[in-house]
Structures are given as structure tokens and as C-alpha cells.
Amino acid sequence: MKTPLSVAVAQLDCVVGDLSGNARRILDAATRAKAAGADVLLTPELALCGYPPEDLLLRPAFLQACAETLDALAAQVQGITVLVGYPAERAGERFNAAAVIQDGRVARTYFKHRLPNYEVFDEERYFEPGHEACVFELKGVRVGVNICADVWESGAADVAREAGAELLLVLNASPFHMHKQGLRYEVLRERIADTGLPVVYCNLVGGQDELVFDGGSFALDRDGTLAWQGASFAEELAVLRFADGAWLDRSVPEPRPVEAEVYDALVLGVRDYLGKNGFPGAIIGLSGGVDSALTLAIAVDALGADKVRAVMMPSPYTAQMSLDDSREMVRRIGVRYDEIAIEPAMRTFADMLAPQFAGLPEDTTEENLQSRIRGMLLMALSNKTGAIVLTTGNKSEMATGYATLYGDMAGGFAVIKDIYKTFVYRLCAWRNAQPGGPVIPDNILTRPPSAELKPDQCDQDSLPPYEVLDAIIAAYMEEDLSPREMVARGYPETDVYRTVAMLKRNEYKRRQAPPGVRVTQRGFGKDWRYPITSRYRDA
């Protein structure tokens, strides 16, 4: 057997724009990898500047700072080859690049061939495609370089193989969505079938605004067998040995349920959004319902109970069980808890508006006032303490507009914005089954959901059953099915057209909603760009 090539995989949580901090992370990983005997260190896509840098890439000073930071980093690297992702500028053109650092300098540079322009990606806005291979030799192994989308399509990996590559190292910033890891395996196995090249796939980890990168880096043999997989939703440095065309180190974790993956994504998204933006803590308006209960559990798991504050704001329509359930949950979870009755404010607003509303019947206006009073109180507490308000609306509500603009939508981060109501219950059940015992009282999970803005109110008075509603939203959003096609599939015609009409009518609300963690293949954010003003009607 030949002397093995030791490949270190650095799964890093980089911060967009933190050039010096990201360089320190990379250098630290290189130092530790060298100490562990590694010959080469692989880092994620655009690790130097963080991903995605978006319109920072249009600023010449940013690109210059990236170049200077890369040179300073390279000068400190000795005794190990390091692959660093960064944005490069050449003759006025920008490239998504990987620098091969050896002996204190950038020895080679690879430019990404395939530029994704779908879902949350818009790299064609910023970069030009590369065309050349990057292949270099280490310990008798010819190593090729690809970057993320290069392996999602044929072409770039073939160019590497034709240039003599025997092993493919891939830098990635592949954001999480449900069932994404299986899709990654499938795509890489297609590239292996085309090229016969074993692969190391190094993925970014961490939250960046609405995106969460889940890590889960892995190595595949030349026959597509999974040899190793790294941690999910956590930083990791691993060293793998490669000899005679095969991986010598083998470690594959047991598959995890989708609920566990999504919950971890939400926790990491909250932790990094608050941590990277410098918020000292979070404030959550409790209602006694399932959405605010799940949001509270996620926040505590992300930040610790000492950094989370729950506020219950009862009205005359708030059921006693809602108060009891909220008090019980905060007892179990250990956060600061306050109750602020909103009835005095309701009376004040009623008196102020009485002359304007004279002769007009009560309607949703009065209901929305309650929600806006609560939003105003939460934002006042946020302003006074610096803590960010986490909103509690789910995807089903965001789709249909079953939320009050400047009311329960008021806040800085929408934790479960991309979680369907039916999946909210699945996440709650999963969380309650974890060691330490249930944190969400059973009564919250079993009672009919209600906004409690009027007597005996129930969500299903205004919406189709959530099982039907969520399926229709998913079919329209994620599959782009027309109402006619959904009806042909067996969905109730009335519910279909009603749901689609609500979804379209409420785009103006969603444009004003805070960002939130994306966990489906299409969320209301970067990958949903529908006009507010439109006369198109689906058939």
C-alpha cells in the first residue's frame, strides 16, 4: 500500500463579511489539521468571506479586502496544503474561486464552472463561469478541485478527470432543506458514475439570515459507497486517509428522523441569527397555543433559558386554560415570565376610535387591534432591553394571511415561518420525547388552535382543515401545480381556489414579514418572488 494521503475536512461556521475572523478560523483549522498529520485541508465554499455575500460582491473595496486577507492568510500557511474558497476578481470580472495555498502563497486558483441561478441562488448576478481544471499532486495522488454546483451537473467533474484527477475535493455552501442530504448523495453518485472519481464533500455549517447550512460533510468511494460522514449542524474537523483509490477511514452515523434535522436547523438558525447580530436575548409573546410554545422551546434550546423572556398578554377572550398552560410551560422550561393584561389598552383604543367607528359594526378591525396592542408591547420591551422579538407565525398562516400585520407579525426573526402547521405538531411531539421529559404541556397539543380574538374562536372557522390546507399550499408553492391540477388530484375544489386566492392576496403582508429559517425546498423568502400587483388568475 502507498503512503496514505491524509485529507482534513474543516466544516466551519463562517460569518459573512468577517474576513479577519474567518481567516482565523481557517488558520486554526490548518494548524490543528497539520498537527494531526494532514497533508491537505479542505474548507467550504467562499469560507473566507462567508456565504452568501450577496451584493457585497458588487463593492470593489470588499473584493480588494478579500484579496488582501487571502494573501495574509497564505503567508501564514506552511507544511500543509489548504484549499480556501473566496471571491476573486480578474480584469474586472468576478469569480467564485478556490485558492490552493502551499508554502506561504497561493499556488493555484480554481474558478467555479457552474453558477446556480435557481431557488435561493443567484450567482449569475455576481460571477462569471470558469472553464479550466485545477489538478495538483500530493503524495502521488492527482487531486482535482470542484465547487458546489460543479458536481450538481455534469461537466466540471469530467474536466477534472480529463486533466488527470484521481480524487475530487469539493468545496460547498449547500443550504439545508428537508431531505437534502439524500439528494446530495444521489447527485454525487451520478458524478462518480460519470467519472469514477472518489469524492470528499466539505459543506459549510451555520445560520445566515434565512438560510441554515447543515454541514454533514462526507466522503464517497469510487463505487458511490458512503465511507464517512461528519456531524450535522455543528463545526467539525476530521482527518481521512486515502490510499490506492480508496478511503481507509470509515464512519457513518445512523440516519436521523426528519423532525430531528428540522429542529436542529431551527435551533442553529436562531442561535446564529442572534449571536452573529449581537442581540443579548429574545422575547416571545406566549398565547397558550402550539406555535408560541414551539418557538419558546426552540429559543431556549438555542440560547439558554437565561436569555429568553416570555410575555403573556391576556385579553377578555383569553381562556383560563391558555394562562394555565403558559404558566406550566414556563415553569418547566425556566424562563422569565411576565403577564401584561391588554384590556385597559383595548378600552382606550375603543374610546379613541368610537367617533370614527360610529354606526359601523364590529369586525376584524377590533380583533386586529388586540394583536397590534400585543405587538406594540413586545416591541417596547425589545427597544428597552435590546432583546429581539421572535415572532411565532407558521407557514400555513404566512401563506393565507392568517396573521396581523404590525401585530403578531411584529418582530425581528420569524422562527417557524417555513413550518407548516401540521409539521409544528410533529416537531412538538419530537421535542417532548427527548431526554429531560416533555416541555410543552399536552393540553397545548390537544386543544383546537385558536387566535382567541373573539368568543369561541377557532382557526378552522376561517381556514380549511390544516391537513388539507398544508397539502394545497405545498402543491402550489413547491410543485407549481395549478388549481385545476390540484382538483384533478382530488383536493376539494372550494378549498383549492379559496386557498390560492388567500395566498395571492396576502403577498403584501409577507413582503413586510421578518426573515425566518428556511427548511423546505421553497420558502417565503429568497426563493419566492411573486408580484404584489398582478392580475394573473390561475385556472
- In terms of per-residue confidence, which ranges show pLDDT below 50 for 5 or more consecutive residues? none
User: Terminal Cα separation, in Å?
Assistant: 65 Å
Kindly report the spatial arrangement of strands forming the biggest sheet: 5-4-3-2-1-14-15
Strand content: 15-25%
General form: elongated
Named at the architecture level, the CATH assignment of the largest domain is 4-Layer Sandwich
How many helical elements?
16
Q: Could you tell me the CATH topology label of the largest domain.
A: Nitrilase/N-carbamoyl-D-aminoacid amidohydrolase
Strand segment tally: 20
User: Which whole number gives the mean pLDDT?
Assistant: 94
Which CATH top level class of the largest domain fits?
Answer: Alpha Beta
Measured as a percent range, the helix fraction is 25-40%
Instruction: Report the biggest beta sheet as strand number plus sense, adding barrel if it closes.
Output: 7 strands, mixed
* Domain unit count: 3
CATH superfamily of the largest domain: Carbon-nitrogen hydrolase
Q: Whole-number radius of gyration? A: 26 Å
Structural class: alpha/beta
